[in-house]
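Thought: the user wants the 3D structure for the chain below. I'll pass the sequence to the structure tool as-is, report back what it returns, then summarize two notable features.
Action: structure_tool
Action Input:
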Amino acid sequence: MLADGDATARSNGSTATAGQRSALPGVTNGARKASLATNGSSNGDKGPAATQRPSTYFGHDREEVTRILIQALSDMGYQAAAESVSQDSGFDLESPTVAAFRSAVISGSWSEAEKLLAGATMSDVRGGQGNGLVLAVGSDRNVMKFWLRQQKFLELLEHRDTARALMVLRGELTPLYQDTSKLHFLSSLLMCRSAEDLMAKANWDGARGQSRKQLLSELSRCISPSVMLPENRLAVLLEQVKQKQIDTCLYHTAASSPSLYSDHFCDRRNFPTDVALELTDVAGEVWQVQFSHDGSKLAACGSRENVMIWETKTFTLVRALADHELGVGNLAWSPDGSYIVTCSQDKYARLWNANTGSLLKKIRRFDEPVSGCIWASDSMSFVLGTLDKSHGLCSCNVHDVDIHEWGKKYRVQDLCGSQDGRWLVAMDDTSNIHVYNATTRELEYNLDLGARATSVNISQDSRHLLVNRKDGEAQLIDLVTKNSVQKFLGHTGGDYLIRSSFGGANESFVTSGSEDGNILIWHKNTGAAVERLPGHFPRCNAVSWNPADPCMLASCGDDGRVKIWTNKAKAFEFRSQHPRSSNGWRKSVDDD
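Observation:
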């Protein structure tokens, strides 16, 4: 236990294939029509069969379904089929005006695009039909103009036409009075010395990159879908169907995408409910267990001085990091798996070569133990959290000895970071969590949880924070809205650090240790308790899900054991292939 560029237009700007470019330059969501007609109007003579067709398709609007199919066929390169469906149904994908707007944006004809935008009408509820451009409800024409002129400004800078770019900034962008800070930023780009410098600072890939297509995609969201379908609409709908089925699958363990041929279902027999192996090499209480980012290694630490590392195919012990003077409360793998930082009770942090086991450096002695570590995505730097109130957060680099203080005056009990590099969350020894911009080190906001937290973790999509609390409640917090979006109940808290984590296929689950020794697994989206597994005695301190295997997790506890959990079939396979020896395994570091 541990105390506390230019291209022929396709679907909303996607690039046509070489074969398609030889045809006429189609601009109706990428499909060249034999004869364009207005949205939903007759595209030629309808025969008796067409006039007898019902207006709905299994309850869905026939025109909407048909237009989505035309777009999808065009997107997939079935141009003749798309034109045939359009001819046969009498429905066109979009009007000539919408097609002209699309072409103007993709070709960089900014004055033509603005002229068409100026003639657009506002939609009421569903949006109008006919030959015109119809803006969606709530759309701001000036915002759309700003986006067009911003692209024009950036392209002028790219071509080093600074004088005209300045005229656009002063005479076209500034009068729209949109975002003042944005205008200041655009003004600063006038100082860029090269097109490459411009692209880097503006996070923009130039006129010949994807920027015009991205602009069209943004603009299309402001146009009524009744006249301009959102891009890749069928693919988006199908993805939503799949995600809905995943979200409601109680035992989701299938890493592959669900089939469209049948409803998705995962059998409980494939869920990790069986103990495949018990690792007894650590000795003493085990406080933390953590897989490497690729799932190929597993490391554990605790009340003894050693940190043990196993490979995860046979769970042979491959390393023992043994230079610690006291127990090790936490550890962190670098994203590339090359390094490990260990956070010791002897008040040092240590950087190790994870492949050789050699100690690379011992990071200064703090006044209190080191509590946690977060790596940067490039594996070249990391942030330490300590219980030393004078040095709660500090940044270190792999290849130098400099330490950069954050100047935060509170004890950091635990910390976590997001994979996109945006967030760093520190947990103090009261009931507060502190959310920082990981790049600028600026505080974004504080949150009072109402109870002391025991661990924090961030989801792979960098959107949600998982917090374990002393009172036995785990919460899922939206980092953007700051709202609690789910609660997980059923485990017990206490005065010691109990660690929880995300896991499973598509990170569909939340799992945690418990003061009573059990392992709790909840469905992340519904909050339903899926499994309660008898884990360790007297306390289960941490659970970690293998990021490369939805059917494997590891747990640890005060009983000095690390347990590997998987489904029944894999558990039997592990046990039959790896008979135990006196220390729990047929081979260890000592055997070598």
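Final Answer: Structure generated. The longest helix spans residues 141-158. The first strand starts at residue 56 and ends at 57.
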